[in-house]
């Protein structure tokens, strides 16, 4: 167990509630069109896709082996976890100009990332077995706090609505860990399936959903006690899980099937399976990250091997189009 505080400063325990943001704007004040950002992990680049046209409008160098992404509450910035290095890099959403690079220390290997409505950044550091909390990330006076998980492969991340608690999936330890970022109490870990990786918190914060790629299962946990509530069989190799903004369903990205398993969150039952690609195509596509549109009408599916993102209509289950991105598109973030 380790707790490290970097850039020591006062720690405010109460986080102010944030008012809903206005439509994202560019630096010149123009309203940003619906936009998808994609981290291309083999190309070491960042792509920007105009969702109105489906065209990639910009692709620029990012960092080594970039993975997960998160957009700022005001839509002006996108943060990138540099898994091949030690930093969280921040870019302007209109130009993809890098405006900050926050180093997390030796062997950090940051992966999961959340840009919270409170304005703070949260990220896992797999190489350090920890979670970072970055207050005021765009300020020179930013404060960086590190809390250890004590587990191997702390990979993906969910954060509570009040920003006080984080949960990680720990691939190497076969666990899910609850980290109290404010009181610094010892983390709580439970064993969940084989190779738990995907994680998502329900919009109301009452259920933690986890997908375990090695056992082809999804799990519903109590986020406070970490008690297992439900176990659901999914498609093969459910690498990610994402809850619809409306909270009615959770969806897993089943890499080996090229499909999505749709789970009713009220009953914890599978209600349908969506074929994004055929089983024969699954290896050639290699679908990884999934992301809901802001209104819950579409699911974006990163197909890492084919350098595409499939746009899926949730109601019909049909693939509407495939968006061309960079080499090895994986992590995604969206502006409505």
TrEMBL record:
Signal peptide positions (record): 1-22
Keyword Signal: yes
Keyword Signal: yes
Entry superkingdom: Bacteria
UniProt keyword annotations, A-Z: Signal
Gene3D superfamilies assigned to the protein according to its UniProt record, in alphabetical order: YVTN repeat-like/Quinoprotein amine dehydrogenase
Protein name: YncE family protein
Organism field: Erythrobacter fulvus
């Amino acid at each position: 167990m380790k707790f490290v505080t970097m850039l020591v400063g006062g720690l405010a325990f109460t986080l102010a509630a944030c008012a809903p943001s206005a439509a994202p704007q560019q630096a010149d004040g123009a309203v940003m069109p619906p936009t998808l950002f994609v981290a291309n992990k083999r190309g070491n680049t960042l792509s920007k896709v105009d969702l109105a046209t489906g065209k990639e409008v910009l692709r620029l160098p990012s960092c080594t082996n970039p993975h997960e992404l998160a957009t700022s509450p005001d839509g002006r910035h996108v943060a990138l976890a540099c898994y091949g290095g030690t930093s969280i890099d921040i870019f302007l959403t209109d130009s993809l100009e890098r405006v900050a690079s926050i180093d997390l220390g030796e062997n950090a290997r940051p992966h999961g990332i959340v840009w919270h409505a409170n304005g703070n950044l949260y990220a896992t550091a797999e190489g350090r077995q920890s979670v970072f909390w970055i207050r005021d990330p765009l300020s020179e006076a930013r404060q960086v706090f590190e809390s250890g998980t004590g587990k191997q492969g702390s990979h993906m991340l969910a954060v509570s609505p009040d920003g006080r608690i984080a949960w990680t999936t720990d691939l190497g330890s076969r666990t899910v860990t609850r980290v109290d970022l404010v009181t610094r109490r010892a983390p709580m870990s439970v064993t969940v399936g084989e190779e738990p990786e995907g994680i998502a918190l329900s919009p109301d914060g009452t259920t933690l959903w986890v997908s375990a790629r090695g056992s082809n299962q999804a799990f519903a946990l109590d986020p406070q006690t970490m008690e297992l509530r439900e176990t659901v069989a999914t498609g093969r190799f459910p690498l990610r899980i994402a809850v619809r903004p409306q909270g009615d369903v959770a969806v897993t990205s089943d890499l080996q099937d090229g499909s999505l398993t749709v789970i009713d969150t009220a009953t914890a039952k599978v209600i349908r399976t969506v074929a994004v690609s055929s089983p024969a195509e699954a290896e050639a596509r290699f679908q990884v990250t999934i992301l809901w549109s802001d209104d819950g009408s579409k699911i974006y599916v990163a197909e890492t091997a084919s350098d595409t993102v499939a746009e899926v209509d949730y109601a019909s289950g049909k693939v509407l189009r495939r968006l061309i991105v960079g080499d090895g598109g994986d992590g995604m973030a969206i502006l409505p």
